[in-house]
């Protein structure tokens, strides 16, 4: 004997940011009401053989629906894999009576087989993501299976990319970082000021205007200090200046010592 399970659509639980988005840096919790056998009885934790959520993606309005294949770490067209065999997000029984199910999407850090991020921030409301549950169960010699309806669509934005203040590490592990930067963005989302430190001893302070670098001060590893004002601008010293030696470059490129 076999039959179809009644599998409900998952509900989503996440902190809404930016006017309706989920944050790439935060988890998305998923909840599923009890799954039922054809006679209306709820599937229990001991009877279930498979309980997982399939991830769906739409990259553009006209794009083919894709399903995440966790076995090969890739998004594939929906017809490329058996949905009952696909490796999805595990659902854990919450052991309520009757039994419901919980899962979680952790968007940050996931990569495909080519090193690209599994989830991407939304641009003009794409990509969109949805989830649906797939179940199989067995009672004595009878087997049952079912795929539920899709959840509402959800989209991501990056809190880091949209933050006015930020810190960056290269590589991104604090234990292995060889470069870090601190930045502040203006109201238009453009970097206004930047401080960078490299493991070789280079320290740079820069500001930006008109979409490009304006001026910078660089402390170099050998001890040199390089001041670079914007084109047509000056280096102004308001107080006294004591120097041991001065050398300048003429417009022809030659260097002359003054004293």
Structural account:
The protein has two domains: 156 residues, Immunoglobulin-like, CATH 2.60.40.10; 95 residues. The longest helix is centred in the middle third of the chain and has 4 residues. A hairpin with a 2-residue loop joins strand 11 and strand 12. The chain contains one helix and 21 strands.
Q: How would you classify the helix and strand content by structural class? A: mainly beta
The H-level CATH homologous superfamily of the largest domain, spelled out, is Immunoglobulins
Unreliable spans are none
Q: What's the overall geometry?
A: elongated
Strand content: 35-45%
Order of helices and strands: EEEEEEEEEEEEEHEEEEEEEE
CATH fold-level label of the largest domain: Immunoglobulin-like
Number of H/I helices: 1
Explain the layout of strands and helices.
Layout lengths: L1 E3 L6 E3 L8 E2 L4 E5 L15 E11 L7 E4 L4 E4 L11 E2 L1 E2 L7 E5 L22 E12 L2 E6 L8 E2 L1 H4 L2 E6 L8 E7 L5 E8 L4 E7 L2 E8 L5 E4 L18 E3 L5 E3 L2
Parallel strand pairs: 1-12, 3-13
Antiparallel strand pairs: 2-4, 4-10, 5-6, 5-8, 5-11, 6-7, 9-10, 11-12, 14-15, 15-16, 16-17, 17-18, 18-19, 20-21
What distinguishing features does this structure have?
single chain; 259 residues; mainly beta; Immunoglobulin-like; 2 domains; seven-stranded mixed sheet; six-stranded antiparallel sheet; 2% helix
